[in-house]
Amino acid sequence: MFPLQSIQQELRKLGNKEIAVHSQKFFKTGKGEYGEGDIFLGVRVPVLRKMAKKYRDISSRDAFHLLHSAFHEERLLSLFLLVEIFRKANEEERKRIFLTYLGSAKFINNWDLVDSSAEYIVGAYLRKIDKIPIYKLARSKSLWERRISIISTCHFIKHNEFFDTLKIAEILLQDKEDLIHKAVGWMLREVGKRSIEVEERFLNKYYKNMPRTMLRYAIEKFPEPHRKRYLKGII
Predict the structure, then answer these.
(1) How many whole angstroms separate alpha carbon 145 and alpha carbon 148?
(2) Which of 28, 137, 139, 198 lies in disulfide reach of 145, CB 3.0 to 4.6 Å?
(3) Please, which residues have CB within 8 angstroms of residue 217's CB and are 6 or more apart in sequence?
(4) CA dist., res. 40 & res. 23, Å (int)
(5) Whether the predicted pLDDT of 86 surpasses 60
(6) What does the pLDDT look like over 101-122, one tens digit per residue?
(7) DSSP for 110-146?
(8) Is 37 left (phi over 0), alpha (psi -120 to 50) or beta?
(9) Residue 80 and residue 97: Cα distance in Å, rounded?
(10) Residues forming beta bridges with residue 39, ordered by sequence position
(11) What is the end-to-end Cα distance of the chain in Å, rounded?
C-alpha cells in the first residue's frame, strides 16, 4: 500500500464524530463564517503530530497531494509533514516546497493551518533573501494569504529582525478581518518580548488608530497600569 493510502485509511479509522462536530463549530464552518464548508474527520492535533512522526519519510509530492484533501485534518497533517521535510531539505527542494506552498495557499484556509506552517516554510525560506512575496500576500484579497504574510515574520522576529513585521503590520493596520487583527497584535507582542522599545515606538505611533482587538493582543503582557493607559488612550 502506498504511504498516502495508509495515511488516509488510518485517519478515517481514528475519526470521531463528536470531535468532528465540535471542530466544525470551533473553526467556524457555518454559512458566512470564515471556515465555511470545511469538513472534519474528528482527529485531535496531538494524534496528527504523532502521525507526522510516523510518516516523516513521505515525499513532499505526497504531502502536497494530501494538502488538497477536503478534510481539515488531512490538510493539517500534510503541513506538519511539509514543515519537517522543508527543515531537512537542500536549497533546491526548499525552494520547490516554498513555491508550491504559495501556489497551494487556497488549501491553507484556516488559522491553525496558517499558524502551523507559514513561519516554518515561508518565513524560513525568505529570511535571507528578498521579502517581496510576503508584501504581495499582505495586499491579497484572501484572508488566509494576508495571515500567512504576517505570521511568516515570526521567523524573522526570533532572529531579532523586526523591520518586516512592522511594515506588514502597517499594511494590515486597517484590515477588516478580526483574524488579521489578532495575528498582527500577536506578532507585535512577539516583537515586544525581544524589544519592548521597538514595540512601543510602533504602538505610540499607531495605537489610537488600531482595531481594539489588535491593540489588546499587542499589549497583553504589559504591566496592568501601563496596559490600561494604552486602552484609555492616555499614553
Answers:
(1) 5
(2) 137
(3) 181, 182, 184, 185, 186, 188, 189
(4) 7
(5) yes
(6) 999 999 999 999 999 999 999 9
(7) SHHHHHTTHIIIIIHHHTTS--HHHHHHHT-S-HHHH
(8) left
(9) 13
(10) 71
(11) 63
Q: How far apart are CA 76 and CA 144, in angstroms?
A: 14
Lookup: cell for 198? 521597538
CA distances in angstroms from 167 to 21, 138, 150, listed in the order given? 39, 10, 9
The mean pLDDT value for 13-21 works out to 96
Distance in angstroms (rounded) separating the CA atoms of residues 191 and 123: 15
What would the grid cell of residue 227 be?
496596559
C-alpha cell at 129: 533573501
How far from the centroid of its chain's Cα atoms is residue 21's Cα?
23
User: Which grid cell sits at 115?
Assistant: 499558524
Distance CA 108, CA 125 (A): 17
The pTM score is 0.95
76-80: list long-range contacts, CB under 8 Å, 24+ apart.
Answer: 76/45, 76/48, 76/112, 76/113, 76/116, 77/7, 77/11, 77/48, 77/51, 77/52, 79/108, 79/113, 79/116, 79/117, 80/48, 80/49, 80/52, 80/116
